[in-house]
Amino acid sequence: MDELDGEAAPASRLVPVLPLKDICLFPSASLALVVDRPLAVAGARTAERCGGILLALAQRDPKAANPGLHGLYAIGTLASVREAFAVSPGELRVELDGLARARVRALVGQDMMVAEVEQIEDGDEGDQWGPAVEALARYLHSHADLRAFLDQQRRAGDPMAWVNLACQHLPIAATARQRLLEASAAERCTFISRGLDALLRKESAG
Predict the structure, then answer these.
(1) Co-location of 54 and 147 in the same domain
(2) For residue range 71-110, what is the model confidence (pLDDT) as tens digits?
(3) Which terminus of the chain is more solvent-facing, meaning fewer CB atoms within 10 Å of its CB: N or C?
(4) 39 falls within a domain
(5) pLDDT, mean of residues 20-45
């Protein structure tokens, strides 16, 4: 399996694309889904044959059957294909582990998309990390089932993994989730520290 390292990773690389509907994959998180569109199946199968790495890339219009080159966001997540197997003719169950954010430099293909990407560093969480951890702890204390679920989903020891998991699984719109994926680590921490406390207040009032 190909390993990504912030210092050793090449400036750019070519990877197959797996388009996603209504969801983003964040680094240090995992995602399991069933794909049936030929474009998505081809991306997953190509990744299996070519190093096990693909780019999970959300599409702008989740209803589009074939998003095309201009129907996908420019920032997604490089992911390793942990497992891919057929569940029926034309359907593939794919399990992904998010590795690092990446920006598309070029995108080509029609029946199967390939992207030239550059890895994006998250940056320092700075002073925003502490409030984010405290807000996440408060929220998970009131949602034991979510805590158990996130424990199962966590794929890295990096402290930011908890923030990324929260960003991936919070009940927010797909467009808001994509904006978080595009944001720096400090900005994601700020959102979590404010957003989770707001959710707790809303739930308590309801």
Answers:
(1) no
(2) 899 999 999 999 988 888 889 999 999 999 999 999 998 8
(3) C
(4) yes
(5) 91
Is residue 111 within 8 Å of residue 53, measured between CB atoms? no
DSSP per-residue codes, the chain: -----TTTS-S-EEEEEEEESS----TT-EEEEEE-SHHHHHHHHHHHHTTSEEEEEEBSSTT-SS--TTSB-SEEEEEEEEEEEEEETTEEEEEEEEEEEEEEEEEE-SSS-EEEEEE------GGGHHHHHHHHHHHHHT-HHHHHHHHHH-----THHHHHHHHHHSS--HHHHHHHHHS-HHHHHHHHHHHHHHHHHHHHH-
Question: In this structure, are 102 and 146 located in the same domain?
Answer: no
For residues 62 and 139, membership in a common domain is answered with no
Per-residue pLDDT, 155:
62
Say whether both 32 and 114 belong to one domain: yes
Is residue 8 a part of any domain in this protein? no
Task: Give the span between the Cα atoms of 72 and 146, in whole angstroms.
Answer: 30
pTM of the entire structure? 0.84
Same domain, 56 and 153: no
CATH of the domain at 102: 2.30.130.40
Residue where a domain terminates, one of 94, 119, 144 = 119
Count of Cβ atoms closer than 10 Å to residue 30 Cβ: 19
